[in-house]
Amino acid sequence: MTAWQNPKTTFSVPAQKIIFTALASVLVLLSHASLPAKAQEGASAPALPAVDGVNGKISGFGGAFDGQPLYGGTGSFTAPLGTQFGLQLDALAGGLNSRLAGEASIGATTGHLFWRNPSVGLLGLYGQYVHANAFDGVDSYGGAFEGALYRGRMSLDAIAGAETGSAKLGGINLDLGTRFFDVADLSYYPLDDVKLSIGHIYTGGTHAAQFGAEWGFATGGGTMAALFAKADVTERGETGVLAGLRLYFGERDKPLIRRHQEDDPIALQYIGRAIFLIAGIHKFKQHKDNPTQIPLPTPIALLTHK
Length: 306
What we know:
Layout: E1 2-4, H1 14-41, E2 55-65, E3 68-81, E4 85-98, E5 102-117, E6 121-132, E7 138-151, E8 154-169, E9 172-191, E10 194-203, E11 206-220, E12 223-234, E13 239-249, H2 256-263, H3 271-289, E14 303-305
Parallel strand pairs: 1-9
Antiparallel strand pairs: 1-14, 2-3, 2-13, 3-4, 4-5, 5-6, 6-7, 7-8, 8-9, 9-10, 10-11, 11-12, 12-13
């Protein structure tokens, strides 16, 4: 049997404590900073609904990870559940032409069930499934809590939970175990239709920094087009960049910042999970083929033969 080593102990990685401490500090600071502003709004102002009508978005993107082509498209559908709750479904289909695993197709679906007050923030539940046909098949599942805090032109979006999965490699079934994962983005809107973000992702045993930008422009009839770009840098020095076009659909015209806080919650990056898993499994394959020359670094695989 081959498995991720000590999967039950992966929740105690010191780096995760540092990340959670930093995120908690930002949440506290933003919460305290928001109290005076919220008090001035007055109790008479009616609360906005969690979702401002049925809406959706589609996007197409292209780029590269570690110098290899990456491409795909995503779609999201969001609907109100009463006035205080909402539901969002996301889907992704893409491909990665990787020297690690050849041509690999990637598919993912996620679901969000949430409470939201657009003048304060969001709390909800998040579920995710990712499949890649790399090697003989890679499957990953995740469940998490998600939250967002809105403070003027700043917002903090995060999910944190547990992931598990499996992979097949040359007749070997790899149990990916159960481990902690998180994604967090701190965004700033210098203009109503411009978003800049910086964040962190930990998945598949790999930490990465994230950077993003989006520029939207109204196209009328409740729609908006937006150009976006993202970049990831992993702890191993691998880099990923992608850029694309996104189209928003809603019941009324509004700027980008309001679409993110009143319509659909931000679909935090999930294609990275499949890519990082492929990279980790490739490292295991190298180690399996040549164990004396290719050691297994602790942050990635922690794979062992039993």
